[in-house]
Amino acid sequence: MGSPSSIDSGVQDRIRQQEVIAELGQRALETNDLDQLMHDVSVAVAETLDNEYCKVLERLPGGDEVFLRQGVGWRDGLVGSATVPTDLDSQAGYTLISEEPVIVDDLREEERFSGPELLTNHDVVSGISVVIGSVEEPWGVLGTHATDRREFTTHEANFVQSAANILAAAIERASKEDQLREREAQLSVATDAASIGLWLWDIRENVFTADEFLAESYGMEPELVTTGAPIEAFFDPVPGEDKDEIWEQLDRALETGVFSAEYRVENADGDLMWMVSRGEVEYDASGDPVRMHGAVTDITERKQREQQLREREERYRDLFTSMSEGYCVIERVDTPPEEPIDFRYIEANPAFEEHTGLTGIVGKTIREVVPGERQEWFETYDTVVETGEPVRFERELVTRGLVLECYAFPVGGETDAQVGVLFTDVTERVERERRLEELIERLETSNERLEQFAYAASHDLQEPLRMVSSYLQLIERRYEDDLDEDGEEFLAYAVDGADRMREMIDGLLEYSRVETEGAPLEPVDLNAVLEDVLDDLQLRFEESGGEVTTESLPTVEGDSGQLRQVFQNLLDNAIEYSGDGPPRIRVSAERRSETDPEWEISVSDDGVGIDPEYSDQIFDVFQSYHEGEGYNGTGIGLAICERIIERHGGEIRVTSEPGEGSTFTFTLPAASDSD
């Protein structure tokens, strides 16, 4: 048993703690400043228990953290900014799920949880923490801490809990006051927005009184209305037919006890306003009516909206009926989960009946009207209901030989399960597309056959041509001494013609194989391709004294072998048609932007040039612009270039003037980043 002095000390501590709690409770009743109260509680708890620290931690939305809303002893800048996790390894998190105060004698030896950085960084050793609010719905944590090892008593823990209870009560009261102020503000706004006025009719004395709202609405003097006048005076602003309705309802209300009427009144500006008035009758002990009290509301805007809605509905009905497109509204039917989805027709216009051949369908379900309807259509309509997003699809009516383009969209409705479906007859368009697809297929087949024919024809011509060439050479060897000058000339023409025929056949073979024997497209470095071509043409450049200037070329998606042929043909032509001077050729590349999918490659020369009139013709097979002018060529090289570039998805063109040189430009797809 403790000594008298220690007992007296403990009693004095509890008395002091009770005094502090009483003082804090009084302060909580006198202030609306929660943060000041939290600060005062923190100071009082720390001083009363002789601790260095006290904190009020507020639980943040989500519950994963609490933040230091108020406190004493902590380093500057932490109050109002520091956060503490609420996991079970944290003292704060452990406290939030504890029914009793959490007492820590020595945080260094604690096994239930570890101290967060907020405590360890301040050398906290011992302390008490309690829940503010309930464990079921905690607002936060109140904690007090010391830097030395202490064994806190149950009375001290209860003292901290009492302080937390004061905070919880103040927080709850502040929350309710905020809710009350919000409700009052909402009520005020609602009352103003609803334009409500109050009235009272003393039936025995026939005195009708009301507030200023009714006086303003009726265009009457406020003093007359508020002091009272016979009820008949309030009927003056009411049109005759509406006045009769009010009297009829008043007579009925004296029997039923309930009054309700909608009518118009003319205000001071001469404008008609719609009002609705409702009231209840009070009776005396004998059952005789004594007074009627009620409220009047301005419903002019509502009536105007209703009128506008009726007008819109009338216009909609006219449009709905006259539409050339079929239109219907369907609504999802509530069916058990084990049964398939179904929709009921709500509306259908004449064009819908004309397109589908379905009549008398309103009120029936789709499965009743069209038993064989495909399940995917039901799923489509259901998707529109569930997502609120429109869907476009095509539907073929085989029995009627029609194809309809359908646009299904949500139209709301009372159940939010209604779908509008617009049907447009696209049969002609679909038929055109089908015919076009068939034409393209026939053209592809025809092109394939033409390629096969060109290959076979050119291949088969090789053998008789070899025979002609062989016999011409044989004649030249055997009868060279017997031929006169004309004979030698004729023989030379024949040999030259055979050689040209061979070149043309070889070119035709090459042209026919562009599509069939091309390699798959892959990233190709055009610098390497051009370098190989220049190596092959080195002798020709040396003989002609030509020069080639090249810029850095890109990597493209292509067939390296075919692109090599394009460069070879263009450079060979530039040398061939360079005119009297040595050829000067420049190869360059350009891309309009980094996102442009194509590169433009240009091969320019300063040769004899081409008349712009023939800029398209030169790409045709066996068309040579300079034929007969002393230049060699079969007229198929540029045709091969065009076909190769088209296979790559590009195009080739020429810009030229006679005597000004030529620039051949072709486009190629840029290699993708992944490549």
From TrEMBL:
The keyword Iron-sulfur does not apply. Residues 429-456 form a coiled coil. Residues 456-672 form the Histidine kinase domain. It is an enzyme of class 2 (transferase). Pfam families: GAF, HATPase_c, HisKA, PAS_3, PAS_4. Residues 259-311 form the PAC domain. InterPro entries: CAP_CS_N (IPR018106), GAF (IPR003018), GAF-like_dom_sf (IPR029016), HATPase_C_sf (IPR036890), HATPase_dom (IPR003594), His_kinase_dom (IPR005467), HisK_dim/P_dom (IPR003661), HisK_dim/P_sf (IPR036097). SMART domains: GAF, HATPase_c, HisKA, PAC. PANTHER family: PAC DOMAIN-CONTAINING PROTEIN, PHYTOCHROME-LIKE PROTEIN CPH1. NCBIfam families: sensory_box (TIGR00229). This is histidine kinase. It comes from Haloterrigena gelatinilytica.
